[in-house]
Design brief:
It contains 12 helices and 19 strands. The protein is of the alpha+beta class and about 500 residues long.
């Protein structure tokens, strides 16, 4: 039979699902933001990075080595969260306030408040603060925000977070502003007022307008999408000085940014340098050595098993390992529309066949995360402990085989798409070995990050299984582990819940 497709990855549940795996995103500390949560799961800080009371190191250059080979700075193509890389350069209508031990809150950013709703929650109105400027001194108006949102609808701009597309009236059929058409459900009655008309009431709209799409883009700018992705016009505390994709991005202060209008960012470092395409083991060794630039560095990538072992063997380095509570989740997502995977019993068999214990070992052991039994991770309001299938950490191979027999399926062959780096491959191999125990043959398909994580938009719920050892992909999901890292995709059964400081990513 034809191989069926799986993908290996991560899910980060919250008010907004979490996004592209761009590992160039440092946490709040030492990044020009107020400290609002622990730096993030399993990352390593340089030795001289220290808090001054509000969590920000003042002046100097912050170096951020990352394994990422491409960082999208265009808000229409970026999946950066509000408290990550793009937040240094671009502001949005709202932002996040996250503090250790407290629930995350949405707060005003460019807007004066988090939004005024009317018409039963179908209309949201925002007013801009006074004194907002782009990096060239031009005033920021609501027309710039409207233009920025409309750009995301253009077919030539893909990959960005697009939750708002199906919520805005007319959004399903709108094709962007480049042909001169506008989206009438976004109204700008004056330069400081913007009104959104929704298809239905949506109480989380204040969170949604913290997404990259709601960053201002100068009206009419950004038609050269490649150029704008490299050097967007800054509204935040930093602007792009240089950007050699795959090598280095250098940010310097935006002199037109005013701290008086920004209660979220403190803009501590004078310069921020992202060093891309770094080998994870080399980065870890450099940060452990703690010499030269490493003293003012932060490893943006989550540590894999090999890197965690390097840190564990060095007591001084352990003191600089940033971990956090459960937040993102790893799961395997299943293409429920193809071949034998259409059969619920086959999908249940995958749930029982997964060896979550081996997966977690490949991810770094207990420090990497706990076993997840539901897609909702600790810290999210309304969460309850839930485990539908109770397969146990090692799975239940006999049960998996019985389900396959009941479904009349034998010699099942699947393809598991996974990100092409040592950490992800090791985790995918653990999934492969677990499924093999039940007679399921899995072929791994390594892909680059952009290929593994296609653009997402709101969709109807799909059938989901509770487990704990994970990955993520499009259709049905099986939670695997609750983990404090980012996100990836997969197709068969979820694994572990990794820790993060709040219900939202600190990356």
């Amino acid at each position: 039979m034809q191989p069926q497709r799986l993908q290996h990855g991560r899910h980060h549940p919250s008010h907004e699902e979490h996004h592209r795996h761009e590992t160039s995103e440092p946490p709040d500390d030492h990044r020009g933001r107020r400290r609002s949560s622990s730096p993030g799961p399993d990352r390593l800080l340089g030795g001289s990075l220290s808090d001054d009371g509000d969590g920000t190191a003042k002046g100097g250059t912050l170096n951020i080595p990352t394994t990422a080979t491409a960082v999208h700075l265009d808000p229409a193509t970026s999946q950066n969260l509000n408290i990550t890389t793009l937040g240094l350069v671009l502001r949005r209508l709202t932002a996040w306030d996250v503090e250790p031990g407290k629930a995350a809150k949405v707060v005003p950013d460019l807007a004066t408040n988090t939004g005024d709703s009317s018409d039963g929650g179908k209309t949201w109105t925002y007013h801009l603060k006074d004194g907002l400027k782009f990096q060239d001194g031009t005033p920021i108006t609501t027309k710039d925000i409207k233009w920025g949102i409309e750009r995301l609808f253009a077919p030539t701009l893909t990959g960005g977070l697009s939750y708002h597309k199906s919520l805005l009236v007319g959004g399903e059929d709108y094709k962007g502003p480049f042909d001169g058409k506008t989206l009438d459900s976004i109204e700008t009655p004056d330069d400081s007022t913007i009104v959104f008309k929704l298809n239905a009431a949506y109480g989380d709209w204040p969170w949604l307008v913290s997404m990259p799409a709601f960053a201002p883009v100068p009206d009419g700018d950004g038609t050269d999408t490649g150029a704008y992705d490299s050097k967007p016009v800054a509204s935040g505390p930093y602007q792009v000085q240089s950007n050699t994709q795959g090598s280095q991005i250098t940010l310097v202060r935006n002199k037109e940014w005013s701290a008086k209008t920004d209660d979220v960012r403190t803009a501590g470092p004078s310069k921020v340098v992202f060093k891309e395409s770094q080998d994870p083991s080399t980065v870890t060794q450099t940060l452990i050595a703690d010499n030269g630039d490493a003293k003012d560095s932060f490893g943006a990538s989550y540590l894999g098993a090999a890197e965690l072992n390097q840190v564990r063997s060095n007591p001084a380095a352990q003191d600089r390992l940033a971990t956090s509570k459960a937040g993102p989740i790893n799961y395997m997502a299943i293409n429920t529309q193809k071949g034998s995977l259409k059969d619920l019993k086959v999908r249940q068999a995958l749930q029982y066949a997964v060896d979550k214990k081996s997966y977690r070992i490949a991810a770094g052991g207990a420090l990497a995360g706990s076993y997840a039994t539901t897609l909702i991770t600790p810290g999210i309001a309304g969460r309850e402990d839930y485990d539908l299938y109770k397969p146990g950490a090692n799975g239940d191979v006999a049960k998996a085989k019985q389900l396959l027999e009941d479904a009349g399926v034998s010699d099942l062959k699947l393809t598991l798409a996974t990100q092409n780096d040592p950490t992800y491959l090791a985790q995918a191999q653990a999934l492969q070995s677990g499924l093999k125990r039940a007679g399921i043959t899995v072929t791994l398909k390594p892909l680059d990050a952009d290929s593994v994580l296609p653009p997402r938009r709101p969709t109807a719920p799909t059938s989901t299984w509770r487990c704990s050892a994970g990955s993520r992909t499009s259709r049905a999901r099986t939670p695997t582990s609750s983990r404090s890292t980012t996100r990836r995709r997969s197709v068969a059964a979820a694994t572990t819940s990794r820790s993060t400081a709040t219900p939202r990513s600190t990356r």
